[in-house]
Amino acid sequence: MSNWSRAADLISSILLLIGAVSCLSGVIGLLRLTDVFTRSYAATNPQTFGMLMLLAGVALRLRSAFDLGTLALVAFFQLLTSAVAAHLVARAAYRTGLTGDTPFLYDELNDRLPR
Predict the structure, then answer these.
(1) From the first residue on, what is the mean pLDDT of each consecutive set of 10 residues in the chain (115 residues)?
(2) Distant-in-sequence, close-in-space partners of 106: CB < 8 Å, separation ≥ 6
(3) How many domains would you assign to the chain?
(4) 51 in Cβ contact with 71 (< 8 Å)
(5) 110 in any annotated domain
(6) Under 8 Å CB-to-CB from 109, ≥6 apart: which residues?
(7) Considering only CA atoms, which of 22, 16, 38, 13 is closest in space to residue 89?
(8) What is the distance between the alpha carbons of residues 59 and 54, in angstroms, rounded to a whole number?
(9) How far is residue 103's CA from residue 68's CA, in Å, rounded to a whole number?
(10) How far is CA 105 from CA 34, 86, 92, 102, in A?
(11) Do residues 32 and 62 make contact, with C-beta atoms less than 8 angstroms apart?
(12) Which residues have a Cβ under 8 Å from the Cβ of 7 and sit 6 or more positions away?
């Protein structure tokens, strides 16, 4: 086993561990946080970072260009869809009045959107 292979195994293991811990923290945030805005943050940001770390860890172990291209597509669509999904969930919660007792510092949508 070459030095590069051992280093790639170590780095890959570290990235996989960081990704798993990040995804776990996002799940714990979903269970523990109280309002829809903080839950949408916990559902998107740690999950996206964790998924990217997991993909980077897997990419270090793969050798074919097809597999790396597939991982790049997964990363692209994860980045694209998670932010849009969080925005739509928060907007739907705002429109239906299910925001809880969260006080708004600025409420710019109050005049624009009918409730």
Answers:
(1) 85 96 93 87 90 93 83 92 88 81 73 65
(2) none
(3) 1
(4) no
(5) no
(6) 94
(7) 38
(8) 8
(9) 45
(10) 18, 20, 19, 10
(11) no
(12) none
**pTM for the structure as a whole:** 0.80
Domain of 90?
A: 3-96
Residue 103 inside a domain? The answer is no
Instruction: Encode 8-48 in three state secondary structure.
Output: HHHHHHHHHHHHHHHHHHHHHHHHHCCCHHHHHHHHHHHHH
DSSP 105: S
CA 18/CA 58 separation, integer angstroms: 12
Dihedral (C-alpha) 23, 52, 11, 14: value to the nearest 10 degrees? Answer: -10
8 Å CB contact between 56 and 15: yes
Residue 64 lies in a domain: yes
Q: Assess if residue 70 is contained within a domain.
A: yes
pLDDT for 52 equals: 94
83: phi then psi, degrees, rounded to nearest 5: -70, -40
